[in-house]
Each structure stands twice: as structure tokens, then as C-alpha cells.
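Subject: mismatched residue count in predicted assembly?

I count 961 residues in my input, but I want to confirm that the predicted structure covers every chain. Input:
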Amino acid sequence: MFAAIDLPTVLPPQASEFARQYDLLFYYITAVCVFGGGVVYALLTYCCFRFAKKEGVAPQRILGSTKLELIWTIVPLIFFLTFFVWGARLFDVAINPPQEAKDNEFFVFGKQWMWKVQHPTGERENNAMHIPVNRAMKVTGTSEDVIHDFGIPAFRSKFDVVPGRYTSAWYYPTKEGTYHLFCDQYCGQGHSQMVGKVHVLSQSDYADFLAGTYRRQNPDGSFPHPVDGSASWRGRKLFFKLNCISCHNKESSARAPSLEGIAGQERAVRDDAGKTINIKASDEYIALSIRVPTKHVRDGWKPIMPAFSTRQVGEQELRDLILYIKSLKPGDLPSRNEYTPAPVGGSVDADSLSQQQNPNPIPMPPQPKKEGGTK
Amino acid sequence: MAVDEVPIPKLDYTPQTIPEPEPTPEQARTRRNYLNHTTSVLSWLLTVDHKRIGLMYLVAVTVFFLFGGIAAGLVRVNLVSPHGAILELDQYNKAFTAHGTIMLFLFLIPVIPGVLGNFFVPMMIGAKDMAFPKLNLASFYVWAIGASFFLWQLIVGGLDPGWTLYPPYSTKYSHTNVLYAGLGIFITGFSSILTGLNIIATVHKMRCPGMSWGRMPLFIWAMYATSVIQLLATPVLAVTVTMAAVEKVFGVGIFDPTIGGDPILFQHMFWFYSHPAVYIMILPGMGVINEVLTCFSRKNIFGYQAVAWSSVGIALVGFLVWGHHMFLAGQGYYLGMVFAFLTMLVAVPSAIKVFNWTATLYGGSISFPAPMIHAIGFIVLFTIGGLTGLYLGTMGTDIHLHDTYFVIAHFHFTMVGGMMFAWQAGLHFWWPKMTGKMYSDFWSRLAAIVMITGFALTFLPQFVAGFQGMPRRYPNYPPEFQVYNILSTAGATIQGFGYLMPVFYLTASLFFGRAAGNNPWKATGLEWQVPSPPDAHNFKDIPEVYFGPYEYGVPDGLRLVADGHLGKKAVHANGAHTGAGVTNGS
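Triage response: the counts match. Full output below for your records.
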């Protein structure tokens, strides 16, 4: 019967190699403290009951004991020094990344009030960080305005992001999942809005993510945009630039078929001879549909799509478009007027806390005040 | 005092000096004391009597505690909901900043030195006033001016950078009244310095005959150590605030990285003051606990020397640990190691004190009126506060806990669980002496228990939330932390009732309380050997001290005997001890 009750977990998720090492030390200190505190509490309780005031019992005159003083000076000191030594070693681990981590360097920019993350290969995302599991990585950060702090509780990692300095941390994620990303250093009005998610992906999902084709559905049914700087992200921009969106969109079903979820599916089309055939939506099929739209027309639609020659869409751009179209999942096609830039400080990745649960709008950051001395 | 005027009392404890006789009811009615020997408003506002100044501080800090408490209440109510229950984001930031700045600069720092220090340091060392009575008054008014800047800043729109005031946020990006607050800090800092100076001079120069360093009550040792810190650390805060102002006004790059400054420098300077400042806050509280524990357990303090020197040790080493607030701020690894090591050293004197207090209870005859319940509560809660500090002083474990609710809980366990309960213990202990009236035993004990329960419920869940990673200063938070915040707010509500109760029953005691008598707790200290409330000049004659401060544990009483000139010697009734043998706990 107790299984139904959803008790809050007392221990935070342990998702990196450092978190495991960290928790060992944490539990060691906890054990010592519980023991030491327990001794004090036991003595206190004993004394309070045993020596409560009684008629006719006089208090004793005890002035102290050098031996006891030495014991309770030296014994705690020894334990404290074990904390210090172990803690210093752990800190050393935390701040000295191995070579593999240095070769896989992410960069974060803190600004009021968002995190911008840049992958080693140049892809960018906001308020989210997708990283591969079982691969060491380093994160270096700086701030554009005030001091922030890049903290991931599941990794037991945190470092201040300071304007004018490059500070860093490193992780070895060991467990796939989605974890909190917090700004831990107070940075103004939107401090609690400066949060995001860390997604630890399998190695193959991460490769897809970098291509822009890894699209995990958000809890609200929407899909995150392809990561900035990926091929699919460029394809999405072209999709808007070439006005594909004016017919292939969420609202309109009058002029063009939906493109959601077509990759690899069999589709009924009429070829230029007017015969209906089934054809698999391969890369080549999509490319042909853009270059020569009248070649195969989806059954039930008019051949009204303009052709796009190599002058309008180069082969590289075509490839980006194909990747984007292939990544579209059901319900994923943007609406016609969706192409608005992310709000300043807003999350592009709707997976972050600020969009998901927070009804409060993210405030616009105020302009920095005038520099001192200038009038 | 001549020997033949004073009947030698038969006491089951040994006061440090010969008690004055209890006034007859007739004398009690007509007696002039420091409260009523003059009655005009000006005689209060321009008084140089340390006791009246102490009462003025009492009224002022109580008002500020109320303000700080209201701000804390707003914060806690807002956190009931993950989206913020009642406040906008910037309102929340102003509320927690108001809570932090008011409680620290206008309550915790002045409360015990200002009220109990002013009132009882001269009395406990047998002096008629502070060394510099006029400076003492000036110090109060300087503090009041500084505090009024804080009030002004609250009225004109509040302050939002948090009490730590880290640049560049505070200097460049905050649109609130940082300048007023800075002035307030600057000016109240001067008051702190002047008070410290006064207490140091008083302790050095004003001790009565026989009051050697080894016979001083431990409250005096604690106040002395506190004053040394105030004198040495506070100027650094003033310098820091001045540097920030210079940067702002003249555009000199000191803290702002865009014009060549370094924001970490501010943190170093800020914590160089603010870490010793937490010892400014807690040491007087520890001093109070010594007085209360010994009195209600009827025992000598266990290890007088250890407790006294641990205060001094904390004061000295406390200057060298400021960097443990900055392990993650980008300071070097080896620098961090030095600070972490010294932090472990400074933890030891606090541990020594806790063990000594516990050992003091051993073999006692313990009664539990309100001050004692607060003092026991202090030990219980401060132990948790001290032990959780070890997690934060250890470099490795600080990484994850830094700037989370774990820090909040730790800090409140030392500052509220420690200092606030010590203040309540001291206030309830000395209230009969300050006012001459005794408060309700039932209500005061109930209030103590309500406060301790509410406090534990408020802050224990925050350790868990902090370990799970909930960051501090978040008006909105992920919903999985809600359960801890609801528990916390429930506890804070109970605590709020607890803190309101003394306002009522202490005020009621002024009008309806029974007369307390000279020495309701049968305490040994000099302040208890004179009538309550004391005369305007404390002592009719300067007392002479014959014993150490805590001679409670004498089986059938020591009798002071006149041996030629009075009291140069005391003998035990059965001849076991001479006066010289029981001077102190060394």
C-alpha cells in the first residue's frame, strides 16, 4: 500500500563519476558528525536528567580536567584534518580535468538571465546542454555582465562564472537522463529564471543531436528546435527563408501536404505520367521533390510547388533542408507565423524550467547603468 | 563597605563580592534607581549612563528585529509555491535583501554588545560606567544615523543585491538604493568600532580591585574578543565600501572588469570583514551561555581557561579563514587549501566550547527556567550549526553545497539557533536585573519551547533541500522542492509566534510582574549583588572581588569572614578551602 505514495527522494541523482566520489566524502563527514553530535547529545541528555535539581543534593565543585581538554581538542582536530585532506584531494580532482576532457571543451556564457552553451564543434544552445554519456568533458565559462554560477547538482559540480575571467569545471557523466542546471550565484531579478536542463544522451543520440536530428518531444507535446549551428538548424532557417513554411505549415492543409514524419515512409504519389505509385520517402526522393516538384506529386494534391534550382538552393543547402525535413516528427511542423526570434533571456529549448512550469514572464534585463564618471 | 554594616549572609554559593542587603519593602518602594532617578525625555536621550544606553539599544534592535522578521516572513510565505505565492521577482529580491541586511547589520551585530554588553560589562567588572561614557552615547547615535539610512533606503524603494553586495551586480546593474545602504553600512561600522574600543578600554582599565583576568566572567572574555574583532575588521568594510563608491563616482577600475577592475577583489575584502563579523555575532552569545549554564546548573564552568582562550583563539584565527567563502569564485587551489586548513583549525575552539558546556552540566543541580531552556537549546542547535559548517569548510564538499539551502540552513543554525537563542537566554537571564521585575515562568518556558520547535522545523528540511541542490535566493524553484519549503514555512510560522510571545509577557511583567529581588537566580556575578534595578552608578562603593566568577559548587556554602580588613580571605565552613584556593578554575 505504501508503494502508491510518492515520497520525495532525499538523495539527489548521482550522474557523474565525480558525484560518486563526492558522495563518499559527504557520507564520511556525515558519519563522523552524526557520531560526534550523538556523543554530545547523549551526554547532554544524560546530564539534564541525571543531574536535575533534587532536594538535598548539592552540586559538585569541578573545575576542569586538562586530560579531557586535550582529548576533545585533539580527537576532533584529527577528524577535521581528515576532512581537510580528503576534501582538498577531491577539490583537486574537480579542478584538474584529464586530457580527454580538455580535448572535449564546451563553453558557457552567462548573461542576465540565460545560459548560452557552445559545443566543441560549434553548435549552440540556450538554457540546455546536451552531452554524451561516458565521455569526459570540460566546461569553460565566462560572463557577459555580473557573476553567475554554473551548477549541476546531479554532477555535484559548480563553478562561478565571472566577468573578465575564464573559469572551468569538468564532468564524466555516467547516467543518461535529464538533470537540473541552476545559476547558483545571485545575479538579479531573473536569477531563479536562469535555469535549464542538462541532457545526458547516449553516444549515438548525441551524434544525432549534433546533426540536429535528435528531437525528443517535450512534455507539453512540442519539440525542441534543432540545435543552433547544426545542419538541421541551417535547414530550418532555409525552410523559412525560401518560404516553404507558407504552404508546409501546421495550419494549412489546403495547399501542401504535411511533411511530418515522412522520412522512410511509403507514400502514394502520382508520377509525371499520372500513374499512382508507392514510393519510399528517401533522401533522394525529398531532393527530387524540391528540385523537380512535378516529378512525383503526392496523391490528392495539385502540382503547384515551384521548383528550386541549384542557383536558388545549392547542394549543401539542399542537404541541410533534407536533414531538417527528415527530423520533423508528427506535430512538429512550425506554424506559419512562428518564425520569431527567441526572447532575450528566454529559452529556445522549451525543455527548461522557465517555460515549462513558470507562468511568470522572464523579465527583460535592465540596461547597465551609466559608467561611473561619465555624465 | 565596612564590615560591621554588612551582615554576613549564609549562602549556598559564593558571590564574587559581598552582596548588598536586600531592601525592605519600604526601601524598595522609595528607592531611586537608574530608571527613575531622573525622568525627563532629555535625561534619556542625552544620558551617558551605560544602562540607559543599553535599554535604548534594546528598543531599537527589537524594532529592527521586527522589520527583519517581517521581511523573513514575506520570503517564507512566497516560497510556499514554486511559482512564488505573493511576490514579484524583484519584490522577493528586495525582501530577502532587507531580511539579510537588517538582521545582520542592525540586529545580530549590535544586539548583545549593544544591549547586554553596554548594560553588564561595567557591572560585571565592578565599574560605575564605561571607560568613555560620552563616546558610548555617541556610538549609539552614530549607529542610529547609520540605521536610519537603512530605513530610508527601505522607504524609497528597497535594495536588491543581497546582503553580500557582490559587484558588478551591486555597483553596476542593480537599480536600487545601494548608495544609501553603503552609507548605512559605513556609518554603523563606525559605531561598531567605537563600541569595541570602549569595551576594550573598559575591560583593561575599569576592573575593580581583585578582578584579575582570571576572575573575569567569561561573558567579559567573549565581549573582549568580540571588541578586538570589531576594532580590527570593521575598518576593512569601510574601506571596501569607499572603494566601491570611488569606482562609481570617479570611474576608477577597482571591481568592475570592464574598466580593469576585479570583482573577486571585492569578495576578498568583503569576507575579510564579514567572516570575522560572524564571530562578532556569535562570540557574545557564547559568552552569555557561560553565565546562564553555570548559574542554573550551580557549577563552576568546566575548564575556565579553555573556554576563555578559545574565544581569543576564535577571534584570532577567525581573521584568516575568509577565503572559505570563495573556493569556487576562482581563487587559486593552494590559496583555497590554506583557507580550508585554517577553517578546520577555527572549528576546534567551537568544539572545545561545546564539550566544556556539556561537561559543565555534569555533577550539577540543574533547574530549567526559561534562560536555561534557551541555553540548552543553544547547545543543541549550535552543535548542528557547527558540524554542518565542516561540510562547507571542506573544499571538496563545498563544491556542491556552495550557494544552496544547505548554506542557508547552516548559517541560520549558527546565527539564529546559536546567537538568537543566546540572546533570548541572556535577555531572560538579566531581565529581572534590568527591570527589577520577574516575568511569567510558564509563558517564558512555553515560548522557549515553541521557538526551538519552530526553529528546528524551519531549518532542518533546508539541509535536505540544499543537498538536493536547491539554490539560495530563488523565488521560483522546481516543484520537487516544494515539500521542504512548505515544512520550512510551517516552522517559520511557529517561530514567529514564539518570537512574539516575549514581547507580550516581558511587557506585561513591567506592569504586573512581581519584584525580582536583588538576586532571583542566586547568581555569583557582581551585577547580582546590587539591588534590581541597579542604582544610577551601579555600586555604592567600588566592590572588591575575592573569588572567581562561578563558585556555585560549594557543598554547604562559603562564608565570608572579616579577617582584619574585610574579606581578604574566605574560609570554607569546614575549612577545606581558603579564598585563595577557589579563585578560579585554572
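The longest strand of chain B covers residues 565-572. Marking this ticket as 'not a bug'.
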